[in-house]
Amino acid sequence: MRPILMKGHERPLTFLKYNRDGDLLFSCAKDHNPTVWFADNGERLGTYRGHNGAVWCCDVSRDSARLITGSADQTAKLWNVQTGQQLFTFNFDSPARAVDFSVGDKLAVITTDPFMDVTSAIHVKRIASDPEDQVGESALILKGPQGRINRAVWGPLNRTIISAGEDATGKLLKENDPEVGHKKTITSLAKSVDGSHFLTGSLDKSAKLWDTRTLTLIKTYVTERPVNAVAMSPLCDHVVLGGGQDASMVTTTDHRSGKFEAKFYDKILQEEIGGVKGHFGPINALAFNPDGKSFSSGGEDGYVRLHHFDSDYFNIKI
Predict the structure, then answer these.
(1) How far apart are CA 309 and CA 287, in angstroms?
(2) Is the pLDDT of residue 144 over 60?
(3) Residue-wise pLDDT tens digits, 149-188
(4) Which end of the chain is less congested by CB atoms within 10 angstroms, N or C?
(5) Range of 69's domain?
C-alpha cells in the first residue's frame, strides 16, 4: 500500500467522489472550497470558490463536465469542472446536504436540513443541457422526515430515491424493517456499480448491505467504532468502513486509541480482512476509484490520503 498525503483543506473533510473515468478525485470539506485532484498522483488541479459555508457533498456528471455541490450556506451550486466557473446556484431556506445526479444527468436530487421552523426535505431539480436555460424551481419536493437526511441517491432507472439519515424518508414507497435496520443515525450510503445493492454506515457501530429494490437486509458488518463513511470495491468483494471516536473527544485521547483506520471486510463472509492506518482523527469520507486499484480517505484532520493497492491485496485469502 503506497499512501499519498494530500493537504488541500484547512478544515475536516466531509465527502470524496471520483469521476466515472477515475482520473479525477473531488473532495469537499468544512473550509468552503471543493477541490479537484489528479487521482493517480494526488496533485491538486484546482478549487471551486463561491460557497460561504461547509460543503457537505458533491457529485460529478457522467461526462465529467459538471460538478454539483451542497453547502451549509443554504445553496447548491452547479460548476464547470474544467474552468471552475459557477453555472447556477440553487437557493434554499435551510442548509443543503446531499446531492446526486440521476442516470443521464438530466435530474439532480438535493436534500435540505431541518432549520428553525423548516423541516428537512428532498428536492428534485431538472438540469438543463444549456446553463443559460437553467431554472431554480423544483420538479418535486418530498417532506416529512423528522431529522436530517444525510444521504439521498437515485434508485434504478431514476424511478425511486433512496435516502438515509436520522429518520426515515418522506412519501415512502418502502421502508426497511425496524428490527433489522440501524439503531442510530445513518451517516453514509454507497451504491454498488450496477446499482443492485447499497451499503449504509451508522453511528450504531455497524454497516449494512441492502437490496436496492426490496430494501431487504443482505449482510451486516460489525465494528467497534461509530461508522462515518463506507465504500464498496468495484473489483473485489470488499467493503471498507471508516470512522472512529467522536471528533469532540479526539483531543482527550491518544490517536492510537481513537481507532481511526479504514477497516476492510469481506463482503460475502462479513469478516474483517485488514486495515489501513494514517489519519490523526476520525475518517469522514471514503471512495474507491472506479478501476478498483486504489481508494481514498478523508479525515477530521483535514487530509486526503490516496492509497494505491499492492498486488498482494488482490490475492487476499480468508
Answers:
(1) 14
(2) yes
(3) 999 999 999 999 999 987 633 334 455 556 677 889 999 9
(4) C
(5) 4-314
- Whether 196 and 211 have beta carbons less than 8 Å apart is answered as yes
Please state, in angstroms and rounded to a whole number, the distance separating the CA atoms of residues 295 and 309: 8
pLDDT of residue 183: 87
Residue 216, classified by CB atoms within 10 Å of its CB into exposed (0-12), middle (13-18) or buried (19+), is middle
Q: What is the CA radius of gyration of the chain?
A: 18
Determine contact, residues 109/96, Cβ cutoff 8 Å.
no
* Integer Cα distance of 288 and 265 in angstroms: 14
User: 153 and 128 in contact (C-beta within 8 Å)?
Assistant: no
CB-CB contact of 288 with 231 (8 Å):
yes
Residue that has been written with the C-alpha cell 485469502 in this structure: 317
Angstrom distance (rounded) from CA 26 to CA 15 = 8
Judged by phi (left if over 0) then psi (alpha if -120 to 50, else beta), residue 96 lies in beta
Q: Which three cell numbers stand for residue 171?
A: 412519501
Specify the pTM. 0.91
Length reported for the chain: 318
Taking only the tens place, the pLDDT of each residue in 251-309 is 544 444 456 899 999 999 999 999 998 898 999 999 999 999 999 999 999 999 999 99
CA 52 to CA 216: how far, in whole Å?
40
Cell numbers linked to 233: 470495491
| Amino acid 188: pLDDT | 95
pLDDT tens digits, 187-221: 999 999 999 999 999 999 999 999 999 889 999 99
CATH number, position 165: 2.130.10.10
Asked if 243 and 283 touch (Cβ cutoff 8 Å), the reply is: yes
Given strand 294-299, what is the order of strands in its sheet? 2-6, 304-308, 294-299, 283-288
**What is the count of structural domains for the chain?**
1
Cα gap 186→188, rounded to integer Å: 6
